[in-house]
């Protein structure tokens, strides 16, 4: 038997690749389009919840079409890790050869998760925003708050202002210190209290909540206005009735949304099945992401493994080309029974 090896790609290896965010957005848009064509396989997520407000998810997927790939993400979310100096979200991405099933790569999944979530939001904004989107509000000054700001600017070049809020003033201060030099042509405006938050929402065309899991909502229907795009990265951060109040409900996968409905994530239920719009159908022109400038459009993106696999494959191909990562031996012996 030939020696079997795979490429180990650490977080620092991924960062060394300097992957353009435009490539990330294009990869996510392409895989959403492919999903709409019916060429992909996307099993439901498998959850392990050993502690309150935590999760470990197993997320396999297969991408068909021109950019064939398959793999699985094993990802954990533990909010209390921030008090231990550890990442809140971390895990591994495993890529498999489509012909043999063999493991081709094992890589960090933290970067993939952070950036693909923002990429899905950015692609959604591209197709569902109002024409003149100059201001957005982001609630949550962590990794998702930062990545969403960076990628939104790519799909919304006219973006001029970003309002940023968080439970902790120190998090807002750190956000401003990091983001303003990275995006000098955007004005960052801190939200320090409820009055400033409402003013920010009133003046924004997009509202993103980039918070961790919450026991109670922080966004209520009466705070919103028509002509907005709402992007809850955690569905329970929004009042349940908002999902039915919206004129359009856009998701990346209907089956996943229904799974979360069964888990109690949508306390007031969901729109009728025929009113659940899939992002890939909008990309492919089968459905319309926005019929007028007056509509309130809300999204539901719980994160699907297809995006992870698409980015995992892109990382692997770039790492192979640049010689980045470490080749590890998985097996050599033919006879394993001793």
Question: Would you give an account of this structure?
Answer:
- Strand 12, helix 8 (254-262) and strand 13 form a beta-alpha-beta unit.
- Helices cover 34% and strands 24% of the residues.
- It has helices at 11-16, 21-37, 110-128, 143-155, 169-182, 194-202, 242-245, 254-262, 279-283, 305-322, and strands spanning 4-9, 46-48, 55-63, 69-77, 89-96, 103-108, 135-139, 161-165, 187-191, 206-209, 229-232, 248-251, 276-278, 297-300, 326-331.
- The chain has 2 domains: 4-112 and 305-331, ornithine cyclodeaminase, domain 1; 116-300, NAD(P)-binding Rossmann-like Domain (Rossmann fold), CATH 3.40.50.
- The strands form 2 sheets. An 8-stranded parallel β-sheet has the order 9-8-7-10-11-14-12-13, sandwiched between helices.
- By secondary structure, the protein is of the alpha/beta class.
Estimated radius of gyration? 20 Å
What is the domain total for the residues? 2
The proportion of strand residues reads 15-25%
Helicity range of the residues? 25-40%
N/C terminus separation? 17 Å
Helix-strand string: EHHEEEEEHEHEHEHEEHEHEHEHE
